[in-house]
Structure formats: structure tokens, C-alpha cells
Amino acid sequence: MPLTANDPSRKSWLEVPANSDFPIQNIPFGVFITKDDVVTIGTRIGDYAIDLGALQQLNYFEGIELTDDMFMQDTLNDFISDGKKTWRLVRNRIADIFDADNPKLRDNAKHREIVIFNMDEVEMQLPVLIGDYTDFYSSKEHATNVGKMFRDPENALLPNWLHLPVGYHGRSSTIVPSGIPVQRPKGQTLPNGETQPVFGPSRLVDFELEMAFITTDANIMGEPIPVEEAEEHIFGLVLFNDWSARDIQKWEYVPLGPFLAKNFASSMSPWIVTLDALEPFRTKGPEQNPQPMEYLKQDGEHAFDINLQVAIQPEGGEENIICNSNFKYMYWSMAQQLAHHTVNGCRVNSGDLMGSGTISGPTPDSFGSMLELTWGGKNPIKLSDGTERKFINDGDCVIMRGHCEKDGVRIGFGDVSSRLLPPFSKK
């Protein structure tokens, strides 16, 4: 089925600002509350939110097999369950509806009033009910940096790292959409030079620049997903800030890995950009040496050229860009991650979230965490207000952005931003 929605020459009758992340070629999917307190599934073009539930009720999806309430739900899980054919039909239809040359909705003022909202009139929600969340560790540069800091610099990567996509099972209950503040976590830490742990707020709260992909119902229990079919089961991607408490993690992670240091919060961007929309931005990933095992072998372009940026904005202050990276640096692809995840028969469901792991590039300004940017706090970052940061301070807002650009078309994710608050206390 052709991807007509991706036509780079297509224009919309809705105004799209220059350098918008959301031209008509994007058509992401999300969930929002309207000014009338109605929860609906929607999409976005420019600075307009589009109510897909209203479009469906007005018969704009006639001819596409959809349940009557497909877009009148508070999550995208059922739509994602319908599979790639349905996603593509719907996305192509939306592109046609809002094409500059299509008068059907453009010239119907009554329908436009029901369907279209300004972005400042809606409140974005978490777009999926996340049943399960897996976090990978798939940036070679990040894994190497951490290995140099905490282990033998000559053997920074652990023996398994080049043979499989390392991952762990995370906590979905504390994944929140952009704009929701995060509170500094408490836990046990072992102060330098001490032999006994202490309890209290983490002193080393960090961001992790990640992307995450969202799956459909991919298999039944016991059934592996072949690497060559894995992308068929990936609905789309979001920006993902996987918050981390480095001091808590250092004390707790042996022998079973991250726990309280990671499960207190993760923040995700509210618009899911489909894999179809990202198709023009495919590129080759890093060369893999040694060759992966047969079930992980891939040919062709399975990485995506997505420019990524991180900024810190102190409370009442201005943004300071501290990192510029790219999703294409990931050593293990999404398809390899999903194939490995299921090779043992693990079931994957609609709405499951898979974090990429911290995305670090080859240069110091492309490192995807404060741990690396300040090299464990040894090289503080100076902000424009004269203050320094080793890690994230209370009041700081961490802002992540991402976009692709090619042949005059820009496809972006908006941003994921969240402010770090002091530890929770009952009022």
C-alpha cells in the first residue's frame, strides 16, 4: 500500500508555521482533552489539534474498517492493535482530508468548528495504556563512557554487550507525559569512603536522552518475532527522558540491576510519530563487529536520522542547550531489540513501550546524560546565569527535542519537558 501521506509536495489548507515539527507529512497520533472536557484521539498539523473521534462521527473515514468508537477512546491501544494496514489507511486518509486541494472539510465551517482546535485549547494526555515497559542499553558510546568511569577503561564494555541488546524490565506506573513535574527520589546511598549506607534524597539526579518505540500485539506466548518482521509490529516513536538517580543506582544495582534509581519517573512526548512518517529518514546504523548471531542479523537501513537536543532551563531562567545528538548512533536497532526481546517466547502487547537506552554520540557535546557531560561531576557545566551544574538541581526543567529533515520536509516530535521538584512531602 503506497505511503501517499509522505508526498513531500503535499500542502495543507491549515496554516503550518515555518520549521514546524508537524507538517501534513507527519500526522502523529495522540490523546487530548478538548475545551469541552471530552477525551479524544487526535492528530496534529501545525499548531492545530484535530479530533479524530469527531472526524469519524462525521463519516470522514468511510470505507475504512474501524469499530464505531475507534477514535472516541482515551488510549490508542485498540487502534494500534488493528495493525499496520489500518494505520496506513487512516494516515493516508487524514492527509487527503487536509490536503490544500480538498474542499470537503476545508469549505465546511460547521464541521471545522467541531473537528479543529488550537493547541492551546487542548490538554495532552499519555497516548497509550502502557502495560509493560522495557529499557535497553544500546548506545555503544554511552556504554563505553560508563564502563570507563566505573570499570577498567581498557575493557569498558562488558563481554556480552557486542553480542546482544542488553535490557531490563522497567516500571510503567510512573511513565508520565510531557509537562508533568517529577519529584526528587529518596533511597539508600553509600557515601564515598563510608562502609554503611544512609537514607535520604538522591543528590545525583540525572536525565537520560532516549527515544522509545510502541508496539502492537506482536505475537503469542512462545512465538519469537523474526528480526526481518519486527518493524511491522512497531507503531511509532516518542522522545523519552528516562530519569535516573545515579547515587541510588550505584549502591543498589548489584546483582540484579536498576530498581529505585530508575522506577521513580520517566517522561515521554505526547505525540507518537509513526514509523511510516519516518520512512524517508532511514539510514544505516553503525557497523556491528562481531557479526550478530543469525536471529539478529539485518541487511539494509534500519537506523533513523533523528536530530536530538537537550536543554536545561533553571526556574525563572533561560534555556541552555547542553547536548546535540542523533538517534542514528544507536548500535542495536529497534528491530534487533524486539527480535531479541521475543526470541525466548516473551509476549509483546499493544501499547508496550521499549526505551532505547541513553543515546550518546562520538563527541563530548553529544553525550546523552549529565553523568557523561560532566564526567561524573568532575567537569561541571556552566549555565548562562553563571551557575554550574554537575547534575540536575531542584527547579530545573529538562527539555528534549527531536526532528528529522530532508528534501525540504521536517518531521518532528515536539518536545518532552519536565521540571524536577524537591522530594515529596505531605502538606
Distance between the termini: 57 Å
Q: What's the average pLDDT?
A: 97
The SS-based structural class is: alpha+beta
- Low-confidence segments, given as residue ranges, are none
Beta content comes to 25-35%
Q: What is the share of helical residues?
A: 10-25%
Give a quick account of the main beta sheet: strands, pairing sense, barrel closure. 8 strands, mixed
Count of DSSP-assigned helices:
9
**Dominant shape:** globular
Number of strands: 26
Q: What is the CA-atom radius of gyration, in angstroms?
A: 22 Å
Features:
9 helices, five-stranded antiparallel beta sheet, single chain, globular, 26 strands, alpha+beta
Description:
It is globular, with a radius of gyration of 22 Å. The chain has helices at 52-57, 77-81, 84-97, 103-106, 109-115, 140-150, 246-252, 334-342, 370-373; strands at 30-33, 39-45, 48-51, 116-118, 123-124, 133-136, 167-169, 175-177, 182-183, 186-189, 198-201, 205-206, 209-215, 234-241, 244-245, 266-268, 273-274, 282-283, 303-304, 307-313, 320-326, 353-355, 381-382, 388-389, 397-406, 409-421. The strands form seven sheets. Strands 6, 7, 8, 13, 14, 16, 17 and 22 form an eight-stranded mixed sheet that branches. It is an alpha+beta fold. A hairpin with a 2-residue loop joins β25 (397-406) and β26. 44% of the residues are buried.
What's this model, at a glance?
It contains nine helices and 26 strands.
Question: Topology of this protein?
Answer:
Layout: E1 30-33, E2 39-45, E3 48-51, H1 52-57, H2 77-81, H3 84-97, H4 103-106, H5 109-115, E4 116-118, E5 123-124, E6 133-136, H6 140-150, E7 167-169, E8 175-177, E9 182-183, E10 186-189, E11 198-201, E12 205-206, E13 209-215, E14 234-241, E15 244-245, H7 246-252, E16 266-268, E17 273-274, E18 282-283, E19 303-304, E20 307-313, E21 320-326, H8 334-342, E22 353-355, H9 370-373, E23 381-382, E24 388-389, E25 397-406, E26 409-421
Parallel strand pairs: 6-22, 8-16, 9-26
Antiparallel strand pairs: 1-2, 1-5, 2-3, 3-4, 6-7, 10-11, 12-15, 13-14, 13-22, 14-16, 14-17, 18-19, 20-21, 20-25, 23-24, 25-26
